[in-house]
Batch of 3 targets.
Target 1
Amino acid sequence: MNAPVLTERRGAVAIVTMNMPERRNALSPELRGGLVHAFDDLTADGECRAIVLTGTASSFCAGGDLSSLPSRDPAASRARMAHSHGLLRTIVCGPKPVVAAVNGNAFGAGMSLALACDYVVGSPGTRFCSAFAKVGLMADLALGWSLARRVTPGEAKRILFAAPVTGGEEALASRLLDRLVPDERLLDEAIAVAVGFAAAPPLAVGLTKAHMTHAASLDEALSAELDGQALLFSSEDFEEGRAAFLEKRRPVFKGR
């Protein structure tokens, strides 16, 4: 049996691929467990500076695996959701920037995974659908939260309530996508974005990501700056960045 999740390295960039094409990469317990393991390992890996998340074949992720859902067992359902929430927190709150390369369908929880990433690259073959309402559920894996950061409140409700299928140019225009590229260039473009992120100072990137995720008010934003910037001013990366600027050369950041 093939591994449900594949991990490949391209220098400082890791490519995490959901690899259950026979299930259209539906978020089964096996796939979810593989993603948790992969992201936990990469978060702890100092050589990894950025991550690309994608899927095999023609589907990024078809959503939750309905066949494996507990039947009328709230305790089991909560435990399953809590496991998925751990994965989402690692993607959203972890220090490594994550780029989604959305090949094919990102439906239900697949859409949640894509929009939890820091940057979303798609192609004409990309299709989003919240899908939850079609089976009598509310959106989960923080989709309501991530949508509200990309589209207007009314548009977010239309996407969640009516569950339209949105792809290509429409997804770019509505800001579900950050970049639209030809299908054959999708993964290469996502990796190129991740390479750019990987070249940035990792301490500053991690603190900036946390700042943008958690600050809900001006006071919280300014407080986070006081804590984070004071640490960065005393970092080796800042010393290297300042020296490189004065010497008119490219800096080499080490995450220290």
Target 2
Amino acid sequence: MRNKNGYLIIFGLLVVVLVILFATDIIGSPFRLQETQSTNINEVTNTVEKIKNEVKIGLTMNEMKELYGSNYIVVNDNGDLENGNDEHWKYRLLGDANYKPSSADHEIDEEGILSGKAGVELFIGWKDEKITLFTISYLGTDKHIHFYSNVHGNVEESIIK
């Protein structure tokens, strides 16, 4: 009888240890990562559709701040963007808040998007405090980087990688 109770106690302790290890993500994280990735893909898809529906050419800076807040980067394009805009902004949505891209702000962060550290990049060009162009870069369900652009009302979509 003592051996049976001893085995039950050891079994109970093993169960408790396994529960703690799974709960703290020490083990089992590959399963959670897969669930998170599919959730993130859905979040990315929903966010991209939301942007396409809400952001329009001619929207003002104040209207944009009302929609997406003031957590944007004022982009220094180093003269690369010869489009006549006064200013450029970039919103980084759904990504890892601690992630710092190695690419310049006016470039698409391909490494971050492919790794999942960057979710959706929304780039905006301003002239006289109104949107003249915007682009959206994101990882599609096909695991390729998608690029949506609306420049002066001309919409194009392509796959980068």
Target 3
Amino acid sequence: MKRIVYYVASSIDGYISGINDDVSGFLYDGKGVERYLEDLKAFRTVIMGRSTYEFGYKFGVEAGQPSPTYAHMMHYIFSDNLRFESQSEQVVVKRMDIDEVKQLKETSETDIYLCGGGKLAGWLLENKQLDVLKIKLNPLVIGKGVKLFEGLGGSYQLELIESNTYENGLQLISYSINY
């Protein structure tokens, strides 16, 4: 069974975006970002929620089409009401059903990249389906916005796998999640 890896940029105070989806303070270059982009090449499957997919429209993603950044991946968008007039075969909308997630974990050829957001990540964690957390920790405090995890009802123990610090203060920190 493949693992779901939540590989996400976060501020020091645990936000993946600010108010109105503002991500302007996050770092977009440097060796840490290069490492992240290189790591993405290992994934053939990406999952995301509706809000994250639609956030991509601001960066040139066309409705129903795969993200250019993840063009080598099969896209699964979890939403109970998202529909497209025209849809690539590389983009599949799945119901918010934990059995759909379990099926993906069984059938994916690689580990699964969770591309945000906080609601889907919280839902997966609460349902014990999130396996690895890889944080691109930015030297930034946001204060308000979208949390790393939304809607949690409990606490979870993590085990450090790896930690690297880069020239611009960005840290890549990897944890396994212990259920």
